[in-house]
Structure prediction request, 200 residues.
Amino acid sequence: MKAPIEVRTPLTDGALRGLKAGDACEVTGVLYTARDAAHKRFLDAIGRGEKLPVDLRNQILYYVGPTPARPGQVIGSAGPTTAVRMDSYLEKILANTGLKATIGKGHRSRPAIESMKRHGAVYFAALGGTGALLSKHIKKAEIVAYEDLGTEACRRLEVQGFPVYCINDLAGNDYYRQSKAQWQTWDKPRAADTAGEGLD
Prediction:
């Protein structure tokens, strides 16, 4: 089995070019977090011509709203949010910030995939339902913007070996769609499987 590809932030164009849809990866470095409410504020700031409170250039944005940390923990459960919820914000975020990757759960819409291809960005998926496991890869967490949003505040996370899969690469390939097409092909009976039918 192929070992996971190490991905370090800040991201480089060379590192992104080496990723293919379906690659297992481990992220080490910094992730910034934002969900729906923070995205809306990002776009409001962009619309006013203001700088965002965080520099997303060459960074990864993780769609997550972690639960409060228990005593002795860095962070609570930190599982991914459904990514397609952020698709309507993606084009303006990519065009105005230099963001190079996102992490979420599930597929992205076709317009979002085309937007990533146009701006040289990729999409990683983390496994849903593994929030407690993922939190163990988070070594430090601090709120850096929109503290009033509570769990949806924008955070800076320092992670080590954070496990994800590359779903959409720079070429616009989509691992979910590729996998579905492959399974549909396998599900069709082959000539060799049916050659002996009716010969009993």
Remarks:
- The first helix runs from residue 13 to 17.
